[in-house]
Write a structure and sequence with these properties.
The chain is an alpha+beta fold. Helix content is 31%, strand content 18%. A 5-stranded mixed sheet has the order 1-2-5-3-4. Strand 1 and strand 2 form a beta hairpin. The protein is globular and about 40 Å long. It starts with 9 loop residues before the first helix and ends with a strand.
């Protein structure tokens, strides 16, 4: 298999400052294919926000109902609070769990997750009447409960804003 050399000026390359653009330009006007970073799974020991097209998911570590200190989560909840206050829209927070534990406990646990997110939004100025809290417990999994990553995907609060 033949390889084509990409011409460059060695002096420019050797004298190049690390903060500048690369010193070479392909002669055939095609961009070199760079390896894409591998998709990383979220850390299942931390709270994680996943923004989707029509709703948002906040995932929780095992046995957690609180939003631990996380800049991305706090930034999202601040944006959401501002949106709710300015628009008067209603947010429905539905808590979910994995299948670990009994159904009755999971139902209550899901509701506690939703109420904890509600309390953060209230502290950010959202009127209580604009927030509805519910629990689906373990009844609506997004992923398998057979793996730690799947259980993590199922431990969540879904946030849907009515327009």
């Amino acid at each position: 298999m033949a390889r084509q050399a990409i011409p460059f000026d060695p002096e420019t390359l050797l004298n190049q400052d690390a903060a500048t653009e690369p010193a070479f330009t392909p002669t055939d006007n095609t961009s070199p294919t760079l390896p894409q970073p591998a998709a990383t799974e979220p850390d299942i020991t931390k709270v994680y926000v996943e923004e989707r097209t029509d709703h948002v998911l906040i995932h929780f570590p095992y046995n957690s109902t609180r939003k631990e200190e996380d800049a991305a989560v706090d930034e999202y909840l601040s944006r959401l609070a501002g949106q709710l206050v300015s628009s008067g829209s209603t947010a429905t927070l539905t808590g979910h769990t994995d299948i670990v534990g009994d159904s009755k406990t999971n139902q209550a646990f899901g509701l506690r997750r939703a109420k904890n997110i509600r309390d953060i939004l209230l502290a950010k100025g959202v009127p209580r009447k604009q927030i509805v809290c519910k629990s689906a417990g373990e009844k609506k999994p997004l992923a398998t409960n057979d793996t730690p990553q799947g259980r993590y995907q199922n431990r969540r609060v879904e946030i849907r804003v009515a327009q």
